[in-house]
């Protein structure tokens, strides 16, 4: 049954920005197909006219005054950074692909 | 044992009494728990990390406050274990994942801040399934926690470290989080009480999000009174969580104390027929359920059969909604601002590598599934349909709870299973059948130890379910049952 879904795991992994080990790919493919087979059973139900539930409790937007509050100090936030520049900036890899940056 | 106090079974309320009577100091109490940790955690492996110096310095401060008559509450100086997805300032918060392994929290979650305000001492970082995804604690990136009742068995999950630490007597109470049963199932497996409050009762600020519309923090304790005490301490409105409810809640412990000596007469208890006819319900669990029904009838409760007709769809709905929300929530972990980074040639490649190396396989599987069900062309077929079936499940509970005050069900189909017994992910998901629907419907539920399975020698839990915001009814019924059940003590031999 699983084959009929034709889930392209590497495409989905691309959307999710996940590098999958080649060894895990086949296993994930099989698992995904089995799980999607299982969730297909929801198609038995007639849900015409049923309102979707996004939250168990009714939610309303919450407003507050636009007043500046206390924020974290820069050094506190940078303490968890994988890399920093001059202790004041986040160090990030080259953003645009290609040559010419260092 | 010290001053006739057995640390392994000591409750929060008994510890508070002992502190008030001067039978013990906060320092003595915390040192006893740390000694217990040293003696057993090598086997149980409940704690990922523990900062002994911090605990003892907080205990000393509590003793000084009490000596001056300035104790923050009767609980000043009592330790509470914290699951590794709930942040404590100055401590790591890895969610048992490699991708967050290096992260130290710059702030306290609301629940930890509120515990501290009462003088409770946050103790350690408790092991869990990575990002709370799992039912056995086997998905932790760092170690497998064992069940204190049988070290070859899992403690359940995802709050397995929390359940095991309380059952092993390393801490009198712990916080867990419950997205599809992650408090109640490990509580049942380890013979402790586990409460999932109504969605919105407890602030999620500082809880690393798994599935935001389902996640709820709750206590794991030796008895129902302790769960009420911890709930009183952590619940109530918080402006930092926009799903936090305004309802006042701070007197559950008083209520639970007031029902001691009472029975259940006048209470109508619903027994959902779909849960009792479920496939795979083991004889030991079934026997404990029957015994529980007999006990509550003996206490004057009337039982009625109710129906939750969409029960069989709950797991499918859950694994669509929870993974969809998780795929969005976990998108923020990319190795850029915090966490583990795998350097690569450019930014996009760094995302791929950091997330590929940082997340374990079950987390990757769920991110993939969530991304798939939300992807173009599938949204209506899976995600929107699941939200509609969620409405049907919610209505099931509304209808059933019109015919009764509370519902009684099993927590798990079997007692704790052995490591490696459920290697197929779908089989693992199916074991959550009795706990998942509650998170979808937003009701509150509690798992209470009910008996010992004669075949496996492992504890069995039962679940009480009440309508949203009726923790008063839930905790009262659970406490009356607990005080009258046949098996009185649930303490592993460890």
Secondary structure topology:
The complex is a heterodimer of chains A (102) and B (494).
Chain A: H1 9-15, H2 22-39, H3 74-78, E1 84-85, E2 89-90
Antiparallel strand pairs in A: 1-2
Chain B: H1 12-20, H2 26-44, E1 47-49, H3 52-67, E2 79-83, H4 110-117, E3 121-126, H5 160-167, E4 173-178, H6 184-190, E5 193-196, E6 216-221, H7 224-234, H8 252-258, E7 268-272, H9 273-276, H10 283-298, E8 302-306, H11 314-329, H12 347-358, H13 361-374, H14 379-400, E9 406-410, H15 425-430, H16 433-441, E10 444-452, E11 459-466, H17 471-484
Parallel strand pairs in B: 2-3, 2-4, 7-8, 7-9
Antiparallel strand pairs in B: 1-3, 4-6, 5-6, 5-10, 9-11, 10-11
Description:
The complex is a heterodimer of chains A (102) and B (494). By secondary structure, chain A is mainly α. Chain A has a domain of 43 residues. Chain A is built from three helices and two strands, in the order H-H-H-E-E. A two-stranded antiparallel sheet of chain A has the order 1-2. The longest helix of chain A has 18 residues. In chain A, 14% of the residues are buried. In chain B, strands 1-3-2-4-6-5-10-11-9-7-8 form an eleven-stranded mixed sheet. The longest helix of chain B is centred in the last third of the chain and has 22 residues. Chain B has 17 helices and eleven strands. Chain B has three domains: 247 residues, Amidase signature (AS) domain (Amidase signature (AS) enzymes); 134 residues, no CATH class; 64 residues, no CATH class. Chain B is of the alpha/beta class. Chains A and B meet through helix 1 and helix 2 of A and helix 11, helix 12, helix 13, helix 14 and helix 15 of B.
